[in-house]
Amino acid sequence: MVAKHHIYKISGTGFGSVSRQGFTIVEVLIVIVILALLLGLLIPSIRSISRQSLVTVDLGNLRSLQSAHYQYAVDSKGKFADAGLSHGGLANEKIAWLNTLGQYVEITGVIRSPLDTSPHWDMPIDGTTDRFRRTSYGWNNYLSRTKSPDAAINPKSAADRLSRIASPANTVHFLHMVATGAFAGSDHVHVENWWIGDSHPNAAPILAANHVQTNVVSGEAKTNSAKANYGFVDGSVQTLYFSDVFLRPDRNRFDPKIAGRLSYN
Q1: Which of 48, 111, 122, 223 is 20 to 30 A from 75 (CA-CA)?
Q2: Average pLDDT over residues 227-239
Q3: Domain membership of residue 181 as a residue range
């Protein structure tokens, strides 16, 4: 049997038709260029899809933590859990939410965010030899009975229970702890330290970035346009700009007394 071959014809230049097999080098190069252009268009889209999938998983982690804590509060007659991991001082791990919510959620499966790039899961926090990162997520200290600035004045005034939260859907609960620095090993922030008056227009995002990974989703840290995921007391989760959660002391979603008076679209 005689093998059949496909014969391609190209026009001659005065010598009639010339037959050949395969592609010329020029044609191969054209195909390579076209493929490179297509890949150049596809790779950013693939990366964007991959990044968005990580953001979605992160939102799921926050939602699980919020749901677990809500159930904890119901079983505790409305009282919240508490924060307890240190950011340099003394710690009380016995009361830390990291150790008290385990009966409501598989805690080891949700405390490390896929967006977390902190080196301190394996490497001690700077200036220490035995402090490591224990959780990607932290706690709004206004909701703590031991860390709240209100509790420092009057322990009975701490917003440490559901009945003291006027607007659960507007009050931030869980958020992302900063990846490096002293607060990388903590489980709560100190919102009252995010403001130094009107001397600097960006004081809040600059100071908050020492506690919170404000740009864990996108944007530049230390700016109002930094974007991160936040959990709220009612169990909802949102991806928000920093300016959406803290603009100034009289307009923020951390202090329950303030958040309850605000409306957000």
Answers
A1: 111
A2: 97
A3: 56-259
92: how many CB neighbours lie within 10 A of its CB?
A: 12
Q: Which amino acid is at 241?
A: Y
Residue 79 in tokens? 């009282």
Domain count, the chain: 1
Please tell me whether residue 79 adopts helix, strand or coil conformation: strand
Q: Distance of CA 151 to CAs 144, 154, 261, Å?
A: 8, 5, 21
Distance CA 143, CA 250 (A): 17
Q: Is residue 13 part of a domain?
A: no
Cβ proximity of 177 and 138 under 8 Å: yes
Tell me what the mean pLDDT of segment 216-244 comes to: 97
Give the predicted TM-score (pTM) of the model.
0.81
Q: Which of 234, 264, 233, 229 is nearest to 247 (CA)?
A: 264
Task: Please give the residue that has the higher pLDDT: either 151 or 76.
Answer: 76
